[in-house]
Prior knowledge:
mainly alpha; MetI-like fold; 3-stranded antiparallel beta sheet
Amino acid sequence: MKPVVLLTDGFVFALLVAGLAYVLHVRGRPQLAANWRLTLRRPAAAVSALILAAFLAVAVADSLHWRVALPAASAGQPAWSPETRSALDAVLGPLAVTRERTYSSPLAYQGFRKESFERNGTPVRDYPRLKFGGAHLKDPSTQWGDDVQNLAWRGVGWGALAWAVLALLSWVALSLRRQRAFGRALTDLVLGRTRYPVRSVLLAAAVLAVSVGLVASLSSGYHVFGTDRVGASVLVAALKSVRTALVIGALTTLVVLPLALALGVAAGYFRGWVDEVIQYIYTLLASIPDVLLIAAAVLLLQVKIDSNPTLFETSLERADARLFFLCLILGVTSFTGLCRLVRGETMKLRELEYIQAAQAFGVPAARILVRHILPNIVPIVLITTVMQFSAFVLAEAVLSYVGVGVDPKTASFGVMINTARLELSATPVIWWTLAAAFSFMFLIVLSANLFADAVRDAFDPRTRLRS
């Protein structure tokens, strides 16, 4: 097995390390820790954090890539498979590699359209049996309903058991932490009389555990969300699109952040010709239609990749390079709004008495910016960047829909929506691709927005008391 580290894989793991470092940083800052505790005391924020953590786990599992060894052409020279697999593919098992002929509806055991084939040596035109969905059934016309019901109840049972273990551990931890009897701790947990919304998190965890158990059990014998035009599982495409959405949202945000901070603070503090030049730069960028600029940059990159096929070993690496470059160009074209906000906030802070006193005492400008300006604009920057995350996830869907987003071979919600555009005009309607993309993207964006609202209320001094 040969490990493969893509550009975005390195970013995902670097983001995890940075997140752990930030947690340690927060623990050493009482005021910052108090703001985050206030954020997580809101039930909607705690539940959203749980859902985002589940999606992050899927993205991390899909970022562990490797290539398996093939029989060597000669002794001592190993050959590697051109197909790159991930830990998520290994977890999904046969569902990730099995291909049907073409479309099949959710939980089906036969194809969606009639085809001509031979049955017992006789040419017929009928709905063909699927290679994976319901392949274990000998007589699917009579066994299908009972089999689906048994798998569903089995998945619900395993999900409920996992949740029961989590609830028991939470009950014991609450009793030990608050030094109360188990009965009193259970009463507090049921009535929601806890410092943090443990009851809401447990209810959300129950829904999540039962849903995961149900889908996992049904996926052992069927395509839960059906298959697409090439016979691939729509569930697998939706799960692998989670990583693309999170990478675009997080990486683009991290590209926007330093550009907006550096230029906005410099323009607002130094003013004069510095302010004029920076205003000209972001006004010029804001005047160019984003879609045209992104399309031109992506097409130039695609021409570069096509003219140099030896730059990447596999098609996945080529697609990942396009994804990485799309995040960069999307960040360069999207920093203008935050830059204006930072500039205005810096101009306001520059006129305060303590800043003018520091200037009068001869404190260097760099020290004033680092010690006084930046700490005071961090809350508003944090609020804005968290809210921009969901906007970038939606932006990828729009760009891929118009054909200038990620590579068509990359799993993303935009590619799924673009594919569903033609499927909705079919007769009968093929609806499950769009439904799966909508459901997953809706959960990600809604969770990010609710979490951003809680962050805004906790970090903004004007709304902290109300929060």
